[in-house]
Write a structure and sequence with these properties.
about 500 residues; alpha/beta; Rossmann fold; UDP-N-acetylmuramoyl-L-alanine:D-glutamate ligase; 2 domains; 7-stranded parallel beta sheet; 17 strands; binds ligand NAX; binds adenosine-5'-diphosphate; binds potassium ion; NADP
């Protein structure tokens, strides 16, 4: 699914109206009818509905919802803020329609606003500003926002919480943005919904398909996408009936150090559960027995060092390489990692400490082979690129790094994003907070290694792995709950996740 900018959303509305022979007022009516259905499904008539509308089309949507709810016998009050004395055409038409049906509780505010008492049972519909917001809210609007936010009422925002920009909120004023419990987004989600710091502002969000031109959306160019199950399903290659293990590649995992054998075991197990033909784990001498016993399906190759990775490996017999889980931060390990990069002509994943080494050796960044996959969490990324003030800035800088290195970056988090060297960003929707536990990232590295070994392109390996990793996390949550979930549970759920995504739906 694409994510378009607010400007593109406006163009999409205009294109739909012009090309698909639909009047703008009817498009608004469709939006309002879906919004009303959603509200009625969640709240019955015992709740008072207080609607705050602005002078633009977001306000128009809100006023149309007021009429629809009123005609369904809900108790509705409307406060329309018409400070400039100018309403958009469709907003004005909806005010007329509201009055024509004998609506009693309409208040138009041009200067002073006497706010109603809001209680915890009230439902506030926020239709002050939508995609037309052009600067942070201030003055009277900021006061209205603060008053709504201070109330106990449940807040439903139309399209996006008033005051929130669709993409970049770096210069926004957080106190002056509505904090919604539910955001009903028109046609497509907004980029800012996917950022952790906006969780309390956006609340739960849902997209309503009002019938904006599919042609326009298909043609529109955007770097931002949300990956959907059917896309992943189509990327997975079927296995030939005559397949043998040689068809699915031999991967090498350089992982573990003394005291962190677990990371190598988790990554290896996940890798073996994700279709690899053969797996070799390269690990220090002291970890040999534990890896051998814990993952009997894998071959174990000893490093020269007793305790950590200290010497690069000959890669002639491998189709893909992952370095990092649990390798630790010894200087010798860092040097072995850099040497390994020089010799690496096969698809490569760098994770965890194999990324941390670059924070202290930035001049070695240029040694990373093109098309390598880097899998940092926020902390690991910022050790390389420096502290960022917000998610948009972090995403922008990660895109720059990806383009500069010509590498793939899998920036891990609640909505893990796969960033390609061409600048595309694929956000993930699977996964849950139960996965915020040590070792979950090692599992992801193992899955990516398995896919690279099987010949998947870097981009597809990242997108499939991230999706399936989250899906397995969701299955594990159903089994054990978020609190008890461990990285091992994600691995145990991988078979069901792979079955789910490969079975034809
Ligand atoms: N026909 C259409 O175009 C459709 C529009 N829709 C709705 O229309 C919304 C977009 O409508 P508009 O483009 O009218 O934009 P908005 O309703 O978001 O607001 C636009 C008005 O607010 C003013 N404004 C912007 N920032 C401000 C600020 N910081 N302080 C004070 N005033 C400010 C603008 O000058 C303009 O007058 C969408 O979010 C969606 O809810 C939907 O009904 C779908 C159909
Ligand atoms: N709230 C969340 N929702 C979805 N996925 C999450 C959440 N928290 C963590 N994850 C996933 O769990 C993994 C954690 O990886 P990482 O931070 O590298 O852990 P570790 O280093 O302990 O293995 C990432 O893939 C991340 O996307
Ligand atoms: K709004």
């Amino acid at each position: 699914m694409k994510i378009l900018s607010c400007t593109q959303q406006k163009q999409a509305d205009a294109y739909t109206i012009a090309q698909e022979n639909i009047l703008s007022i009817n498009l608004m009516e469709k939006a309002a009818s879906l919004l009303t259905d959603e509200i009625c499904r969640r709240w019955d008539k015992s709740h008072r509905i207080i609607i705050f509308a602005g002078s633009g089309n977001n306000g128009g949507d809100a006023v149309a919802v007021a009429r629809m709810l009123f005609l369904k016998n809900y108790t509705v009050e409307v406060y329309l803020f018409n400070i400039t004395g100018v309403l958009s055409d469709d907003c004005m038409k909806n005010v007329q329609r509201l009055q024509e049906c004998g609506f009693p509780n309409y208040h138009e505010i041009s200067n002073s606003f006497d706010p109603p008492q809001l209680t915890k049972d009230d439902i506030v519909i926020d239709g002050l500003f939508g995609s037309g917001l052009n600067k942070p809210l201030s003055g009277g609007f900021a006061s209205v926002v603060k008053y709504i936010n201070a109330s106990q009422a449940t807040v439903v925002s139309i399209d996006l919480p008033s005051g929130l920009m669709g993409e970049d909120n770096s210069n926004n004023i957080r106190q002056n943005i509505i904090r919604a419990d539910l955001t009903l987004s028109i046609q497509l989600p907004k980029l800012s919904f996917l950022f952790a710091e906006n969780e309390d502002i956006v609340g739960e969000w849902k997209v309503l398909d009002i019938g904006i031109s599919k042609n326009f959306i298909e043609e529109a160019s955007t770097p931002y996408f949300i990956t959907e199950a059917n896309e992943i399903r189509q990327l997975i290659k079927p296995r030939s009936r005559f397949a043998h293990k040689g068809n699915f590649g031999h991967g090498l995992l350089i992982a573990g150090s003394y005291g962190m054998a677990g990371a190598s075991i988790l990554a290896a197990r996940a890798c073996l559960r994700s279709g690899i033909g053969l797996l070799t784990v390269h690990t220090p001498v002291r970890n040999h027995d534990i890896v051998q016993t814990s993952v009997p399906e894998a071959m174990v190759q000893n490093d020269v060092h007793e305790l950590y990775f200290a010497e690069p490996v000959d890669l002639d017999n491998f189709q893909a390489l992952a370095i990092g889980p649990g390798i630790g931060q010894e200087e010798e390990t860092a040097l072995a990692t850099f040497d390994q990069l020089k010799e690496c002509f096969i698809p490569l994943v760098l994770d965890a400490d194999a990324l941390n080494v670059f924070s202290t050796h930035r001049n070695y960044l240029n040694r990373i082979p093109k098309r390598t996959i880097l899998t940092p969490h926020i902390g690991e990324l910022e050790r390389i690129i420096g502290r960022c003030n917000n998610s948009f800035e972090r995403l922008t800088k990660a895109k720059e790094l990806s383009a500069y290195l010509q590498c793939y970056i899998v920036l891990k988090g609640a909505h893990t994003v796969v960033i390609t060297p061409e600048g595309n960003c694929y956000f993930n929707q699977t996964g849950n907070p139960g996965m915020a536990t040590g070792g979950s990232g090692d599992v992801l590295t193992g899955i990516i290694l398995a896919l690279l070994s099987q010949g998947y392109s870097q981009e597809n390996a990242c997108r499939i792995a991230v999706y399936v990793h989250g899906l397995a996390g969701d299955i594990a949550r159903n089994r054990v709950g978020e609190i008890s979930l461990t990285a091992g549970d994600i691995i145990e759920a991988l078979p069901e996740a792979w079955k789910n995504i490969t079975e034809t739906k």
